[in-house]
Amino acid sequence: MKAVVFRDPETRVSVAEVELAAPRAGEVRVKIAAAGVCHSDLHVKRGEWDAPAPMVMGHEGSGVVVELGEGVTSLAVGDHVVLSWVPPCGECRYCLQGHEARCQKVATVVAPKGVLFDGTSRLSLPAADGGEPSTAEPLHHYLGVSSYAEEVVVPASGAIKVRDDAPLDVIAVVGCAVATGVGAVLNTAAVEPGSTVAVIGCGGVGLNVVQGAKLAGAERIVAIDVVPEKTDMALQFGATDRIDASERDAVEQLLELIPDGVDYAFDAIGRTVTTEQAIRMLGLGGAAVIVGLPPTGAKASFEPLVLAEADQRILGSNYGSVRPSIDIPALVDRYMDGQLKIDPLISGRRPLDEAAEALADLEAGGVLRTLLIP
Ligand SMILES: [Zn+2]
Ligand SMILES: [Zn+2]
């Protein structure tokens, strides 16, 4: 099958012929309908994270189940699914506590090693002409997904069944952008009605933070970005105010709008400067929530005395603290009920072999989400 392979930051991301083995026990094979191009894929492409390479890229996607591995009873062939880049193991102490986004087995095996739960990969590059199959080059999964491909084999817990009437070439982005953004508001921060909220960065994840804050009943939602088109969009997603951070210091402008500071400041970018701004925007009892992911090793600073005296908190939010099998179908329902906007997040659709162009578009900053359609 065709899949998009990442080798190293110097080698262009390109489509290759890849072998996909049959699903083993507890796994399923899914035919991909659409795969979203996310900033995390860009971090990988630029070599900013220690990602297991070579790998098939992509961690956001949707599709249809085409084959069940031994023992899988939670899914059937033909089910429509959204892929979750945390396939909960269901057995570790975090999964048992209901904190599935923290799944220990995903954090220690699946994600860092680029394999499935049994420690092996279903992906490989074909052996060179005439070579023994044993000489085939191993290929890694990305976050247990690898959705930039015609098909994937994933743990059954990472293929989340959703309703059949939801368009697969839209709801693919529920698996990362929507779950991460809305989940950060509803799950990680548990924003209360009447709260004041600042959102730094209005890209694919940030706009979902904005609409999550609206769902939570926030009274003021201040959208902050350096690209005016993105804060325009944020107003459509429920923001009540906007700040153009390209002009003047965003914190200074925020404190002109809300002199007491905000109850919640979300950093949907994940740069040192934006994390520090989020902390400085807080009012008494406020919480800064780090949603956007920085490069490995990045450091930010804050004044502990201010934090302690003002009873403030800094929260990290991984994957919107979601419980995939509960939250993903519920988010798809909210989209179908008109409570969540997803269509405006999708700025274009491209074939699989234009993955490099889609990543370049994202890097240039103009687009929200491009979907790759195999
Ligand atoms: Zn993502
Ligand atoms: Zn677990």
UniProtKB/TrEMBL annotation:
Q: Which Pfam families match?
A: ADH_N, ADH_zinc_N
What's the domain of life for this entry?
A: Bacteria
Determine if Zinc is one of this entry's keywords: yes
GO BP annotations, alphabetical order: formaldehyde catabolic process
Q: Which UniProt keywords apply?
A: Metal-binding, NAD, Oxidoreductase, Zinc
Parts forming coiled coils? none
Stated EC number for the protein is: 1.1.1.284
Q: Which residues form the Enoyl reductase (ER) domain?
A: 10-373
Question: GO cellular component annotations, sorted alphabetically?
Answer: cytosol
State the needed cofactors, names only: Zn(2+)
Q: What class of enzyme is it?
A: oxidoreductase
The entry sums up its family as follows: Belongs to the zinc-containing alcohol dehydrogenase family.
Q: What is this protein called?
A: S-(Hydroxymethyl)glutathione dehydrogenase
Could you tell me the gene encoding this protein?
Answer: flhA
